[in-house]
Amino acid sequence: MESSHNVSEFILLGLTQDQESEQICFLLFSLFYAVTIVGNLLIIITIKSSQSLISPMYFFLSYLSFVDICYSTVTTPKMIAGFFVERKTISFAGCMTQLFFGHFLGCTEIFLLTVMAYDRYIAICKPLHYMTLMTGHVCGWMVLGSWTGGFVHSIIQTLLTTQLPFCGPNEIDHYLCDVHPLLKLACIDTYIVGIVVVANTGMISLTCFVVLVISYIIILVSIRRRTSEGRLKALSTCASHITVVVIFLGPCIFMYLRPSTTFSVDKTVSVFYTVFTPMLNPLIYTLRNEEVKTAMRKVWIRQVDSEDK
């Protein structure tokens, strides 16, 4: 792969070049990554161990947590390691691998969030048909479809990028390998490729966001006729999901629904969907969900009791 390019490695300029800021960032992002791994693992273990969390919503949530662990691992450890070295390099193959898995897992998360919104729509608006429509078989196919959609999206992005000639310079003004910064380094006019990127990544983000907004408008209209307790429960569940959607899809739309240009705030915006969202997901879904908190306490008590014996 490398032999077809003059560039065998890229230099990542990182999140900041200030040494004092890098030390602070090292501590912060190490903490963020630890919280991401522990929090999402805790959700997966709780859902798999609990007899009460068997609804499709928690089935999807366990996969969302798994994707979050993988997604944050694609970029965050490399970024944290970069705070220790002055010259942050990544091989051409490593860069393309990071690009592929970043888009693969990121797009899979978008599709999973959309599937979860559909699940909430059926549960709240068509409760009598919920168990008939959202069977285990259907849920499995939805998850598989999310993974497949993410793979197809990512392979298109990666193949388009790897075919570009890179003659130098090789400095990427970012902490990760992504399409827009790489297009700036290509030796040819990348206008057409940039349009494909917008049509691919940008439109997926925008379309899913519009679908999600419409589904929640329908949900909010439908719960007006319910009791106050029923409305509060539905709103609590939906509020958690809407929060995650806005934090994740908002920055994605800003980053990819535009021509192949880069802005000074791009690195900061990227932190939201590569670092913050995977970390916040378990906090958002547990702090606002009594069922998950109760299940976690039961798993903890069961674990303590087994150790005492």
What can be said about this structure in brief?
75% of the residues lie in helices and 3% in strands. It is mainly α and 309 residues long.
Describe this protein's structure.
- The protein is mostly helical and 309 residues long.
- It has a 3-stranded mixed sheet.
- The model has no long low-confidence stretch (mean pLDDT 86).
- The chain is 75% helix and 3% strand.
- The chain has a single domain (2-308), classed as Rhopdopsin 7-helix transmembrane proteins.
- The longest helix has 34 residues, at 92-125.
- The protein has helices spanning 19-49, 56-82, 92-125, 130-133, 136-162, 179-185, 191-222, 228-256, 266-287, 290-308, and strands at residues 9-12, 89-91, 171-172.
- The N and C termini lie far apart (57 Å).
- The chain is built from 10 helices and 3 strands.
- Residues 39-285 form the G-protein coupled receptors family 1 profile domain.
